[in-house]
Amino acid sequence: MAEQVSNQLDENLVNFLQGERIVTLASIDAENGSPNILCISWVLATDSTTLRLAIDGRSKLLLNIAKDDRVTVTVLGLGTATAVTGRAKKYVDKLEGCALNMAGVEIKVEAVRDVMFYGGKLTNELVFDKTYDKALAEKYDAEIYSALRK
């Protein structure tokens, strides 16, 4: 069983989650109760107790959290794997000022656990590349992060 570290994000994790990071988001499938996992890059820690995410307005995740709001975000970075559990809700149907149809989801942090295996340490940050138009990607990123910070 993972050790409970805290009921809030520490300062390093808040700072780490200020720009695009690859995280996984686990929710409970509304139809069959199984785990449902998504990879997400538009995530922002607004403070030590709140995460905000931009999610496609058609995503099944929105149905899942409407039925059962329990979620876990797994962050791979800062040398370790961190599981952040909490309660999620859609706080806006469409993020203001965004060309994409993105809903805003807010997670209230309940527990933060280090879930890295014993003796393990991450030595590299995850890196990804966007495979579509770079200028358009930068535009979307700016719009989404501006909206998540409101």
UniProtKB/TrEMBL annotation:
It comes from the Bacteria. This is Pyridoxamine 5'-phosphate oxidase family protein. Residues 9-93 form the Pyridoxamine 5'-phosphate oxidase N-terminal domain. Pfam families: PNPOx_N. Transmembrane segments: none annotated.
